[in-house]
Amino acid sequence: MSIERKPGGRGRPRDPAKLEAILDAAYDLFLDRGIAATPMDLVAERAGVSKMTVYANFQDKPTLLAAVFDRRRKTMRLPDLPVESHLNLSLDRLAEFGELVVSVVTRPEVVRETRLMAECAADQPRLATVFYTAGRGEILKRVVLFLKGLTERGVLAINDPELAADQLIGAWLGMTELRQSLGVAGPPSSSAIAKRVRYAIDTLVRAWSTDAEPRSADKKYTAAGSSRRPRSTLNLLRIDGHL
């Protein structure tokens, strides 16, 4: 990636409106053209400011890129993921959380953001770490804590919540992001997202339910009302003591 540098001077105080215009312009151009193909003078032109104004706020392109993603990071607000009093209520919260996550992650602009970050990760490792930690890392953290909570209550018997959470989120997303990144599919519909998320949760519960709670009245998550503990997938693959 080519890097343009100019020293930033003190000058007059920053104009918040111009700063926002620069960040908006840079965000749009980075997504549309890529980082390397977006010179600072084009950002200035799109923002309707002088190139000097751009450099007065951002000394170089990496600084501008970091500011663009930092602003996006601050807009990310994940909902709480509480463990409720009943397993099915908890699973409803998990389903709502999962559907929101998939709907956001598969938005076209978010898919482009992820692709853009992958493009610059080698040159901007700190920025890539912040991007992951604030996004997927935080999603994973919340699902891990949720599964640990259900395990501590004895309604699920997950021996590795981090691995289970990682696999659950992977099942929520499947190949959707890859298809979108390759341009062979658009964003999934809300009904497709709901079906995928709830199927993955049902699979998780079938694998790890202890049947420690009363039978569910609505049986939305059938494993919660099962009369016996489901066998794990690994056990289903065992034949005469061998895998």
Give a quick precis of the structure:
The chain is mainly α and 243 residues long.
The percent of residues in helical segments reads: 55-70%
> How many helix segments?
11
Query: What is the N-to-C order of secondary-structure elements (H for helix, E for strand)?
Result: HHHHHHHHHHH
Instruction: Count every beta strand, where a strand is a DSSP E run of 2 or more residues.
Output: 0
Oligomer state equals: single chain
Please state the overall shape, judged from the principal axes of the Cα atoms: elongated
CATH architecture of the largest domain: Orthogonal Bundle
Biggest sheet character: none
Description of the molecule:
Helix 5 packs across helix 10 (190-208). Helices cover 61% and strands 0% of the residues. It has 11 helices and no strands. The protein has helices at residues 16-33, 40-47, 51-57, 61-74, 87-105, 108-120, 125-152, 161-173, 176-181, 190-208, 233-236. The model is unreliable at 1-11, 213-219 and 222-243 (pLDDT under 50). The chain folds into 2 domains: 16-75, Homeodomain-like (Arc Repressor Mutant, subunit A, Orthogonal Bundle), CATH 1.10.10; 86-208, Tetracycline Repressor, domain 2 (Orthogonal Bundle), CATH 1.10.357. It has 243 residues and is mostly helical. This is Transcriptional regulator, TetR family. It holds the Pfam family TetR_N. Keywords: DNA-binding.
Topology (SSEs and partners):
Blueprint: H1 16-33, H2 40-47, H3 51-57, H4 61-74, H5 87-105, H6 108-120, H7 125-152, H8 161-173, H9 176-181, H10 190-208, H11 233-236
